[in-house]
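During the second year of the project, the team shifted from modelling isolated chains to modelling whole assemblies. The rationale, set out in the original proposal, was that interfaces cannot be judged from single-chain predictions alone. As a representative example for this report, we include one of the complexes processed in the last quarter. Its constituent sequences, exactly as entered into the pipeline, are reproduced here:
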Amino acid sequence: MNPDDRDVAIDNHGASDSIESKDSVSAPATEAYDHFLALVKRRRSCRAFKPDPIPEGHTERILEAARWTMSGANSQPWEFVVVRDKEKIQALYKAYQDHIIDANFWLEQRFPWELRHPGFRLEGDLQAQYRQIQARVGWSRAPVVIAVLGDGRRQLASVSLVSTPGRNQTHLTDALANVSLSIHLAAASLGIAAEWVSIHIQEPFKELLNVPPLLMLHTIIPLGYPQKELSGSYRRKLREIVHYESYDPAKMMTSEDILKYLYRLRESTIRTYVRSRGEQAVPRAPDPGGPNSDAPDSGGPGPGAPRE
Ligand SMILES: Cc1cc2nc3c(=O)[nH]c(=O)nc-3n(C[C@H](O)[C@H](O)[C@H](O)COP(=O)(O)O)c2cc1C
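Output from the structure prediction step:
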């Protein structure tokens, strides 16, 4: 496949995309719906924070809203560690850099530059790229960080198939994802920005926060004010993702379409991503024949290696 043959339509303006209602009785939206829609559209991921404190009481307001989140059989497996101590936040961010950013940086080298996660589309040779990720301030200056913990024993409140064999899905992680979203939405309603920091490797963070081994550390959510105003976000169109009565096979993408989609998605979201990190300049692909085409020592394809 030619990666330039990217014909998957992407609308990056977040414009509304209503589809014709199939319901027999129509009614205008409620005021609550309008407020809710405005809120979910306003919420944006922030990846660079001003050090300014957030108003007293807001963190607790956010957590008060979060505790009303739904969970399997109302098991409420979540607990939260609120961190305000600057040194501890910096230590958490250092652990994030040392363990998660480092691993992701190397593993992203598997992909052609244009397909890499936006956080790892960097300029320069491999060493220069690595120095850039090490120098990143990221969320280390956020005034408040919430660590979302889960106690797997609580999901035993739910039905026996809570952790369905053969499916990589549990009521524990579903509930923790739900509560994380509630935190993001509650923060947005108070004018506070947040980042969803995936914790793929939990141990270093659990140690820093004295979390008992039995509990999991699911997400870290820095809260604060964005360094740069956050821009709009892209979403797939409603008509592409909704099926009525049964799945419409015409909407099923082939795997080749998915690859094209991924190229287009990366292209369409890079600007928003760069902005969310408080930066302006969109990184440019290294010149395939130029000095940026160094291969890593492992002998794998370098950042500027031919793409196909
Ligand atoms: C399961 C999940 C994992 C995510 N992991 C991260 C992450 O590790 N770091 C990050 O900055 N954003 C993360 N995000 C945020 C997404 O990148 C973001 O929601 C998406 O790009 C859309 O942008 P928006 O939130 O501004 O609308 C995550 C979101 C979800 C739901």
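The longest strand covers residues 216-226. The pocket of flavin mononucleotide is lined by residues 44-45, 47, 195-198, 233 (CB under 6 Å).
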